[in-house]
Amino acid sequence: MISVAEALEAVLALGAPLDIEEVDLAEADGRILAQDVQANRDQPPFAASAMDGYAVPSTDIKPGDTFKVIGEAAAGHRFDRSVSAGEAVRIFTGAPLPDGAHRVVIQEDTTREGDVITLTDPLDSGHHIRPAGGDFKRGDKMESPRLLSPADIALLASMNIARVPVRRRPVVAIIATGDELVSVGETPRDDQIIASNSLGLAAMFRRAGAETRVLPIAKDTVSSLEMALTLSEGADLLVTIGGASVGDYDIVAEVASGVGLEREFYKVAMRPGKPLMAGRIGDRAMVGLPGNPVSSMVCGEIFILPLLSKFLGMPSGPRARIEMPLQGALSKNGPREHYMRGVITNGAVSVARRQDSSLLTVLAQANALVVRPPHAPACDSGDVVEVIPL
Ligand SMILES: Nc1nc2c(c(=O)[nH]1)N[C@H]1C(S)=C(S)[C@@H](COP(=O)(O)OP(=O)(O)OC[C@H]3O[C@@H](n4cnc5c(N)ncnc54)[C@H](O)[C@@H]3O)O[C@H]1N2
Ligand code: MOO
């Protein structure tokens, strides 16, 4: 059996950054920016008022000073002449500052009679002027790779970038295997269960930027599985679930090698997730996950999310770990790296009492995996452990 680190390295070697495509900015949220983009304008493009009030020439004015109002500047409507000593221009937030003006006095600090305003209050410390290019300047870059957020979308819009170069989404085909499985919403026989992993994994992969194809459930027969494998053609990554262990009906390895799987490894010193396999079928990467629901979800977190990052041209490597004090004691670990379902509360992590890899209720409550190295000694409450937040 290889270590988790060796298995991850082999899984990552199955993928490479996908090609770049252009999408409308409106479609770019959650996509990975694949090339640096540059602003082709300054923002704001002119010195602008930050407040509603009066633009005046001098910064050296005091309560009691009066000014003749000679015109108006509103957002989208520049005042074309300049303003001189003793004059003011009525101005609104976002309007271009007229030539000659060096500060904006907020209207609350003035009184107005006809065309004349009088400064009534001591001046604020700020000039209430947003300088041209104060947010960004022409040529400023948004650097790639970058997961585009709603704030990024607003910034790119402000830069007037209507089409955005992004990494193509990896297409992941997901095949659940097993005669005992029926799709959610169907009526199972009394010896059947619902295929849960495929939908859980699809949700996980979509959140990570993939496009998913949940294929029909394959029966535990060579022909059914072969058919499902054929349907996965064209995907960047094929993920099978179940049928990976040593039972008589665990036929994924055999059928996949029949259709050309070049296997990189089978079995990892990890818990849950021991019967994991990975390799390549034609031009698609293949990861065979164990069927136990928690095993498949944990392997998705530990192996497939980093692989999706690689496809997307993002930094890819082991999931980030943090150190945290343990709440409660743990007995010594066995020979496999153990990814224990746990809950972080108030800066400490507690490990769920039941760690069986069939328990989705426990996984759904967990917000962390506590990672215990092979043969780790017993630990006490307060000892520091490594944690992968989920
Ligand atoms: N003699 C041994 N038996 C087992 C070993 C072993 O080393 N020697 N390993 C155990 C471990 S660890 C795991 S993990 C499981 C993995 O087995 P498979 O990958 O072959 O998975 P299945 O047998 O097909 O299913 C296991 C379990 O999970 C349920 N399942 C499967 N697919 C789904 C799905 N899509 N959604 C929900 N539940 C699913 C299935 O009904 C079984 O209950 O093998 C151990 N055995
Ligand atoms: O290794 Mo299995 O995945 O423990 O349940």
UniProtKB/TrEMBL annotation:
<dbReference type="Pfam" id="PF03453">
    <property type="entry name" value="MoeA_N"/>
</dbReference>
<keyword id="KW-0460">Magnesium</keyword>
<dbReference type="GO" id="GO:0046872">
    <property type="term" value="F:metal ion binding"/>
</dbReference>
<keyword id="KW-0501">Molybdenum cofactor biosynthesis</keyword>
<dbReference type="GO" id="GO:0006777">
    <property type="term" value="P:Mo-molybdopterin cofactor biosynthetic process"/>
</dbReference>
<dbReference type="GO" id="GO:0061599">
    <property type="term" value="F:molybdopterin molybdotransferase activity"/>
</dbReference>
<feature type="region of interest" description="Disordered">
    <location>
        <begin position="122"/>
        <end position="142"/>
    </location>
</feature>
<dbReference type="InterPro" id="IPR036425">
    <property type="entry name" value="MoaB/Mog-like_dom_sf"/>
</dbReference>
<keyword id="KW-0479">Metal-binding</keyword>
<dbReference type="InterPro" id="IPR036688">
    <property type="entry name" value="MoeA_C_domain_IV_sf"/>
</dbReference>
<protein>
    <recommendedName>
        <fullName>Molybdopterin molybdenumtransferase</fullName>
        <ecNumber>2.10.1.1</ecNumber>
    </recommendedName>
</protein>
<keyword id="KW-0500">Molybdenum</keyword>
<dbReference type="InterPro" id="IPR038987">
    <property type="entry name" value="MoeA-like"/>
</dbReference>
<dbReference type="GO" id="GO:0005829">
    <property type="term" value="C:cytosol"/>
</dbReference>
<dbReference type="Pfam" id="PF00994">
    <property type="entry name" value="MoCF_biosynth"/>
</dbReference>
<feature type="domain" description="MoaB/Mog">
    <location>
        <begin position="173"/>
        <end position="310"/>
    </location>
</feature>
<comment type="function">
    <text>Catalyzes the insertion of molybdate into adenylated molybdopterin with the concomitant release of AMP.</text>
</comment>
<comment type="similarity">
    <text>Belongs to the MoeA family.</text>
</comment>
<dbReference type="InterPro" id="IPR005110">
    <property type="entry name" value="MoeA_linker/N"/>
</dbReference>
<keyword id="KW-0808">Transferase</keyword>
<dbReference type="Pfam" id="PF03454">
    <property type="entry name" value="MoeA_C"/>
</dbReference>
<comment type="pathway">
    <text>Cofactor biosynthesis; molybdopterin biosynthesis.</text>
</comment>
<dbReference type="InterPro" id="IPR005111">
    <property type="entry name" value="MoeA_C_domain_IV"/>
</dbReference>
<dbReference type="InterPro" id="IPR001453">
    <property type="entry name" value="MoaB/Mog_dom"/>
</dbReference>
<dbReference type="InterPro" id="IPR036135">
    <property type="entry name" value="MoeA_linker/N_sf"/>
</dbReference>
